[in-house]
Amino acid sequence: MAWYVKYILTLQNAETKTMKATQALHNLGQSIWLDNITRDLLDSGVLTRYIDELSVTGLTSNPTIFDHAIKNSSAYDAAIRSKLSRGTAGEDLFFELALDDINGAAALFRPIHDRTGGVDGWVSLEVSPLLAHDTASTIAAAKDLHDRAGQANLFIKIPGTKEGLPAIEEAIFAGIPINVTLLFSREQYLAAADAFLRGIERRIDAGLNAAVNSVASIFISRWDVAVSERVPADLRNRIGIAIAKRAYKAYRELLDSPRCQRVLNAGARPQRLLWASTGTKDPKASDVLYVKALAAAFTVNTMPENTLNALADHGEVGAVLPADGGDCEEVLAQFTQNGIGIEELAAQLQDEGAKSFVKSWEDLMAVIRSKSAALQTSAAGRR
After folding, report:
1. Is the dihedral of CA 119, 97, 168, 341 positive or negative?
2. What positions carry a catalytic annotation?
3. Does pLDDT of 7 surpass 60?
4. I want to staple 160 with a disulfide (CB 3.0 to 4.6 A). Which of 192, 264, 281, 364 is the partner?
5. Is the distance from CB of 195 to CB of 166 less than 8 angstroms?
6. Spatial CB neighbours of 296, under 8 Å, sequence gap ≥ 6
7. DSSP character for 271?
8. Which region holds residue 231: left if phi is over 0, alpha if psi is between -120 and 50, else beta?
9. pTM attached to this predicted model
């Protein structure tokens, strides 16, 4: 009998070794989302292949992604010409282009969304980053985009800034699924989770369906970039993971809290934790550094395309994140001893993140204007 057990274990080990790391991560219980969208990805069938072969179950977008997509491809030219002919221009033209892409991706992920009962299969579209510090306009924009898309599996992205938090609460109360973006610390995450729960509790009090989905996106790699020249070599590429572990501990504690249990008992869905900015920035570090370190069930890792392909090609799944945060406090204490103020830097990173998205938005609007002018000139020349 011992030989048979040994034989079965050998087969299981061989199967594990041949299984793509993307599949192994999916089997562990972490959702893999692609942090990219382009018309070419949709039209070429590459996104479909990622879904079928690399266990991708969702997708996120942001102004930087759309800026690069429209700037570097002619795939949008025909649609831009058509929309210009109808008098659509500027920001309205962009959102029509973006919604075309988002709706196409949402259709591809809809079977996953239906199969998982709405847990997975989501796509995300961000409100204008110019509204990051304008609560009322953010609420109005979130409702408008959600209504225009008409997709059950669409998250509207709202930044977790001080002004964004009341907009998140109002959007959740209105029944709009929200991806809270630009979170950089445990405290920022907990503030976003509190806004989500307030919205759900208000729905329960009003006799409304409590099942409104949300994710809270913690940005990881930007931490390591920010401190790389300020700390000793042995601390490089360690603060982002420690911040994630600290947030994960808070996430697990919140899920087990009486407050969360009460709303779950009333039919609410837990707000999942999402790891964002997980592409390695340091060329000397592993290209799957953050993916390997942040494996955890009932979370999401949204990966740049290069990181996704690297994981599938040569990555491996690391140890599961400890529910108690592991060594995060000891590691973060070393950064504090080296002059890094954790909360001060978290606020700075959130502010810089909002400003970088504004810059990308301005670049995007400039691309829309220049492409529109070039296409109109070309059309006039042909006449």
Report:
1. positive
2. 157
3. no
4. 192
5. yes
6. 29, 30, 248, 273, 320, 321
7. P
8. beta
9. 0.92
